[in-house]
Amino acid sequence: MRLEGNFYTIDSITTPAEGEHTVVVTLAKEHHIYEGHFPGQPVVPGVCTLTIIRECLGEILARPVSFASIKDCKYVSALIPEDGLRIAINLSLSDTKLKATVERCDNQQTVLKLRAEIR
Fold this sequence. Notes:
Blueprint: E1 8-17, E2 20-27, H1 46-61, E3 67-75, E4 86-94, E5 97-104, E6 110-118
């Protein structure tokens, strides 16, 4: 199941340099996933953040993408859903090696750092 379109929407994709991409997405505040994660104190699930990265990369590459391995994944801060929450996903791709960072657009706070291999 794709999350794009109901959990988040892509606002823009830019390519500042070869192999470098920035995807800005808006997260839906009112989504049923928050009923279980966590009631009364919703947090964007980490697996959803990884899925957004994977789906956005697939959009850029115009093909389905999966993680062959995740070398390092560090969640630096939690994403609390709120009206108009936008995140920037900075992707650096060299062959099958991916480096990604996710940050809030409103205050540039880093949310996640990722190093992975894709296929």
